[in-house]
Design brief:
InterPro entries: CYB561/CYBRD1-like, Cyt_b561/ferric_Rdtase_TM. It catalyses: monodehydro-L-ascorbate radical(out) + L-ascorbate(in) = monodehydro-L-ascorbate radical(in) + L-ascorbate(out). With about 250 residues, the protein is mainly alpha-helical. It is built from seven helices and no strands. The protein has a single domain, classed as Up-down Bundle (Four Helix Bundle (Hemerythrin (Met), subunit A)). Helix 1 runs antiparallel to helix 2 and helix 5 packs antiparallel against helix 6. The longest helix is centred in the C-terminal third of the chain and has 38 residues. The structure holds protoporphyrin IX containing FE (HEM). Protoporphyrin IX containing FE binds next to helix 2, helix 3, helix 4 and helix 5.
């Protein structure tokens, strides 16, 4: 359907996949909350319950918000590129902030309990995912939002930014799966093989995290769902091709 200014509305199918992705995202958050609330005693900053802040914040920040930030360019198709970029950057910043609370919670909990740090595959993947995510945000901000990077520099960096964006969501989901497995082994090792409800809930949570990642990946890789450039962005990129090296049309890319 056209909006009268030759801008196509949201492509058929995209809205459905978007709705499914949001439903899955909210479900994994609710299930993590239910797991911590129902079986792990609840959530608090003090006492042993401080650990429970960790899974919840990591699922909200590193999975749900990170995933949603990747979808911004597919959803906000008719807004200016700059508005979409600002929203994309803000959502990632919010995700990082919530994830930081989750990381502080687990380190602080380990310190108070006198537990060792960074001994597991989960913690190694986790610290890599979190640090690389922070670096990715800094690089994205410097190249795409901070005025000064030239158009050609932005164009050369963009494929790496896109690749690492998808890689980091995959790594975050894989890290969550390792964390789920580890928490189950710590908390219900003796009864896990008897199909206890907590084990089943956590295993289903793991499966839904994978499905969430798949739906986001599918939306991102459908070529016809990519954001078409606005007329003025097209004009700018055409202009750029005629410019000599080093010139920088400021508001595109
Ligand atoms: C992308 C998401 C996640 C990241 C970046 C992450 C990161 C980390 C890090 C860096 C540690 C080490 C803390 C220390 O050594 O003091 C840790 C510990 C832990 N995390 Fe996560 N985590 C994530 C998600 C989860 C989830 C979803 C769960 C469980 C449902 C979980 C369960 C655990 C457990 C049980 C520990 C303590 C054992 C250990 O150090 O491996 N994590 N996490």
């Amino acid at each position: 359907m056209e909006d009268g200014l030759t801008r196509p509305a949201s492509p058929a199918g995209l809205s459905w996949y978007m709705a499914v992705s949001q439903l899955l995202g909210l479900t994994v958050i609710a299930m993590t909350g239910a797991w911590m609330g129902q079986y792990r005693g609840g959530i608090a900053w003090e006492s042993v319950l401080q650990f429970n802040v960790h899974p919840l914040c990591m699922v909200i920040g590193m999975v749900f918000l990170q995933g949603d930030a990747l979808l911004v360019y597919r959803v906000f198709r008719n807004e200016t590129k700059r508005s979409a970029k600002i929203l994309h950057g803000l959502l990632h910043a919010f995700a990082l902030l919530i994830a930081l609370v989750g990381v502080i919670a687990v380190f602080d909990y380990h310190r108070k309990k006198g537990f060792a740090d960074m001994y597991s595959l989960h913690s190694w993947c986790g610290i890599a995912a979190f640090s690389l995510y922070f670096i990715q945000w800094l690089m994205g901000f410097s190249f795409f939002l901070f005025p000064g990077a030239s158009f050609s520099l932005r164009s050369r960096y963009k494929p790496q930014h896109v690749f690492f964006g998808v890689f980091l969501l995959v790594l975050s989901i894989a890290t969550c799966l390792l964390g789920i497995k580890e928490l189950l082994l710590f908390s219900i090792q003796a009864t896990y093989s008897s199909f206890v409800p907590e084990g089943i809930l956590a295993n289903v949570l793991g499966l839904l995290l994978i499905v969430f990642g798949l739906v986001i990946g599918y939306i991102l890789t459908r070529d016809e769902w990519k954001r078409p450039p606005l007329a003025e962005e097209l004009a700018l990129s055409m202009d750029f091709k005629t410019l000599t090296k080093g010139e920088s049309p400021s508001s595109s890319q």
